[in-house]
Specification:
Blueprint: H1 2-46, H2 49-59, H3 75-93, H4 100-105, H5 108-129
Helix pairs in contact: 1-5
Length: 137
C-alpha cells in the first residue's frame, strides 16, 4: 500500500537525483574548462608568440610567414571528429533509465492494483493472524 501512495514521489525523487548528478557533471566540466582557459591566459602573458599561433585556430587567419608549413585537415578527419563529438554529446544528454518497478508502479492502474493488493493482505493478516479469542472457563 505504501508503494501505491509513494510511487509518484519516488519517481520524482529519482528524476531529481538524476538531474542533480548531470548538473554536477556539467559543473565539473566547466571547472576543467576554466582551469584550461586560465592556463592559456597565463601562457599568453608569459609568451606573446602564443597569440599568433592561437589566431589561426580562433579567428581563422592564415599566417603571413612564407616558409611555414601548416597542416590542413582533410574532410575525412573532420567528419570523424564531428561524429565523435556528436556521439559524446548524445551519451551525455540521455538520462539513465529509472528503476523499472518505480516507473511501472507510478502508473494509475498499477497504483490502484497495488492499493487493493495491500488492503487484501492487511485484511488477510488481521483475519488469519489476529489475536486468539479467549475461552471462558
Amino acid at each position: 500500500m505504501a508503494l501505491s501512495f509513494l510511487a509518484p514521489e519516488l519517481d520524482e525523487n529519482y528524476r531529481n537525483i538524476d538531474q542533480l548528478q548531470r548538473t554536477l557533471q556539467n559543473n565539473e566540466q566547466l571547472e576543467e574548462l576554466l582551469e584550461i582557459y586560465d592556463r592559456q591566459i597565463e601562457a599568453t602573458k608569459s609568451d606573446p608568440d602564443i597569440l599568433k599561433r592561437l589566431e589561426r585556430k580562433t579567428l581563422g587567419k592564415e599566417p603571413v610567414e612564407q616558409d611555414t608549413v601548416h597542416p590542413v585537415p582533410s574532410d575525412k578527419y573532420l567528419q570523424l571528429a564531428e561524429k565523435a563529438i556528436k556521439d559524446n554529446n548524445a551519451k551525455q544528454t540521455t538520462p539513465p533509465k529509472l528503476r523499472k518497478y518505480i516507473e511501472q508502479s507510478a502508473k494509475p492502474k498499477t497504483r490502484l492494483g497495488l492499493f487493493y493488493a495491500g488492503a487484501a493482505l492487511i485484511l488477510t493478516a488481521f483475519i488469519c493472524f489476529g489475536t486468539p479469542r479467549k475461552v471462558k472457563t
